Amino acid sequence: MRKKIPQKLVSYKSSFGYLISTLSEKFNVPTVVITSNPEEASAILDSINFWSSSTSNLNFTERNEIFLEKYKPDNKSTKDRMRCLEALSTGYFQNKRPIICSSIHSLSTKTLSKENFDKLSMKIHTGDKINQKDFIDSLISSGYTHSSIVESVGQFAKRGDIIDLFCLSEQNPIRIDFFYDEIESIKLFETSSQKSYKNLNNIFISPVQETNIFQDLEKIKINNNNFFSNTNVEEKKNILEEFASMKKGERTDLINFYSGFFDNGSLFEYINENILIIKIENHNIDLEMNLMETRRNDNYLNKIEKKNILPNFPLPYMSKNELTKSLEKNKISLMLDQRNSIDNELNKLEFSIPKIFDFTKDSIFRYIDIKNKNEKIIISTDYPSRIKEIIGSDKTKIFDDIKIFSEDKINIISKNAGEGFRFTGDNESFLLLTDKEIFGRKKKRVYKSYSNNLPSSVSSEPFKLNDYVVHIDHGIGKFTGTIQLGSTDKEFIVIDYKNEDKLYVPSDQIDRIQVYKSFQKNEPVLDTLGSNKWIKTKSKVKKSIEILAGELLQIYAARENIKGKSY
């Protein structure tokens, strides 16, 4: 793979996730995937999530910010990007090898320099001696904000000799117990109960803000000398005053506007020779780079003309020339494409669109090649019970992960890959079918949550992972975690029901869920989504309550009519 000329593989697009995860596993190195647009990056990441559960699959997302505008930056995209910087800097994330997907637009946006990242990062151990005030100052410099109670990433709280902290690499916050200026213990704790549950020997704390406004002022002036040397005294004074107000926390809306002054690094600084780089559809990437350069230049000149910004105002993104040089310096290890080419060393892989062999048959069976007796069929679906009904075999096994399945000809994976393909090799072949081929349904876009930051304030009686819960409209289910769906940054509570159905409840509707309680020792039977059983149960309970209330009213009325004796 480490040839002077990048290797190029030609294959069907839906196989890209499979190829990337396989190559990353084979070489056992962190991997960076570059695409032409953010939608493609998200789609490939979804596919990688299906094929690889042994890696941390991250998205170096768009910053979701309108650059050179004054408004408060988006925290979610910042956390996503900072997780990627940590993963590349350390070589792992949450104890797994990282695969990072990024569009060329995201990649070109400047970020915290590797030098600053290393300066702001801390690895602390039990027994370390560190001044508490200095430690808190370091947290603030790294972008952490003070809070009365820690519930989400980037917050810290101090109570006596205890400092609670929610860092990027942990799913739950950590509690650091000091004995004067010595770290006595480091523990993980749950946000819902605020109870500690696991001791740690050490913890890595990385910065959570991409734009480090606490940099040395003189260094900022040197890095942006072209601007400051061509700006008059009054204008420089106004800008420096606004920098000071940003540091005090008075003008957070200016951080995005001035990010070009502070952000002078790129993701390329974090990529070393041991990282596998894969470009997707190189022609599309080059085309997007040209369009991106034109749009950005037009916007920049327009703002100068309208006097929204001063001439030579530092930009928060790389120019096309800078981006091209960085791509050439970091030799691309592999290119994946759907197009044939004659100017690269070419390897065409035998992946293809699932072919229909018999139009007279329904859904699954029309894709099966009856002549190929040894072809393994993998069905990836969000509706495993329905697939078993279509197949007409109770013996067909359902698995949660693609890495584990039986030797049977047909296996069902209860996770949707999004789009299927057929692989035909010399010694083996397999067919992947998804809900798209079988039902004509697109995959639901799911964003993985890397932190369990379900607020404790929204429920007086919080529930834990795998607790049985009762939803007011849908009945008894099992709480299996939280997740993020679509482009929103809202957390959704995931509840499993009968027949492997899942219900996604917005976290702001947690008041509709209660912990299941019963005097019976046996585990409850899960309700079926969409059935009338729970409605009938609620109706019966309602009638019983109404009868009981009526009886109580009669008793109270009777008591009112009884004349008592006075003493």
Polypeptide structure, described:
- The protein is of the alpha/beta class.
- It has 4 domains: 7-111 and 262-339, 3-Layer(aba) Sandwich (Rossmann fold), CATH 3.40.50.11180; 122-205, Penicillin-binding protein 1b domain (Penicillin-binding protein 1b fold), CATH 3.30.2060; 351-439, no CATH class; 454-567, Thrombin, subunit H (Beta Barrel).
- It is built from 16 helices and 27 strands.
- The strands form 5 sheets. The protein has a 7-stranded parallel sheet with strand order 3-4-2-13-14-1-15, with helices on both faces. Strands 6-7-8-9-10-11 form a 6-stranded mixed sheet, with helices on one face. Strands 16-20-21-17-19-18 form a 6-stranded mixed sheet.
- Strand 8 and strand 9 form a beta hairpin.
- Helix 1 crosses helix 2 (38-51).
- The termini are far apart.
- 32% of the residues are buried.
- Residues 454-461 have low confidence and may be disordered.
